[in-house]
């Protein structure tokens, strides 16, 4: 389960290459597959072999939300990292709803998994989409792992993000995105590196779907209550969308699924899989062995 060497390679590259070069190099080791849905295509980056593990990014994101995880996880699973509809290289969904995004992903999940049950891991808004995929029943789901997931209808502190759309100069835009990484994504400011800021800017400026209003609803909770899919959860200790109420997330998940694995990673924020990749990768791999499908 050791993921250190692969993550060390990304860290070393971060000191010797530009952020765009790092992304291009990781992507060069992926298999790019575009799968159709009614009205467009979903872009996937696929790594490794084995049982299918689909990774769904957060709002204003893309597959690169998992850039420090895909290769480590690909040593154990067939990793399917999506650009969801309305994000990155994928087409827009037929309707501007989370339900439509979930429906658009279903044909690709069936195709890439070859009919095998899929484990879903969803970060932030991606967790809502995971719950909806399970509720819609178009894809056999082995388990769902929620990573800093939104849509649970639980307490959260207010947050002010910096507006960037009307900023003219590249420097001003980059500084706004850096500020938003510090406010929302990464708790330890020393870990806000050029790659993190680059990914935030590229992902936010390419996103066409607006998820923030959905994140504050209880849509995920409602979807999970309508299914019996096995659950697990990973949160950062200082997740800006949950702290200081992270334990409420644990209590809810374990009320919905008694015994559900749940781990809080210390010293990390919302984008826990980027800020603490080694700990996250090891935790997720362990959870995937612990969480079992129900009869």
Question: What labels would you give this structure?
Answer:
295 residues, alpha/beta, Rossmann fold, 8 strands, globular
Give an account of the 3D structure.
- The protein is α/β, with parallel strands linked by helices and 295 residues long.
- It has a single domain (4-160, 210-290), classed as Rossmann fold, CATH 3.40.50.
- It has twelve helices and eight strands.
- It has helices at residues 4-16, 19-28, 70-73, 98-113, 125-136, 170-185, 194-206, 212-215, 219-225, 246-256, 272-275, 277-290; strands spanning 31-37, 40-47, 52-56, 78-83, 118-123, 141-147, 231-236, 262-265.
- The longest helix has 16 residues, at 98-113.
- The radius of gyration is 17 Å and the shape is globular.
- Residues 1-6 have low confidence and may be disordered.
Which topology does CATH recognise?
Answer: Rossmann fold
**How far from one another are the termini?**
28 Å
Q: Spell out the CATH superfamily.
A: Alpha/Beta hydrolase fold, catalytic domain
Unreliable runs:
1-6
Strand residues, percent: 15-25%
Query: What is the level-2 CATH architecture name?
Result: 3-Layer(aba) Sandwich
The secondary-structure element order is: HHEEEHEHEHEHHHHEHEHH
Tell me the strand order in the biggest sheet. Answer: 1-2-4-3-5-6-7-8
How would you state the average pLDDT, rounded? 93
Q: Would you report the number of β strands?
A: 8
Please report the number of helical segments. Answer: 12
- Can you tell me the number of structural domains? 1
- Report the CATH C-level class: Alpha Beta
Secondary-structure content class: alpha/beta
What proportion of the residues is helical, as a percent range?
A: 40-55%
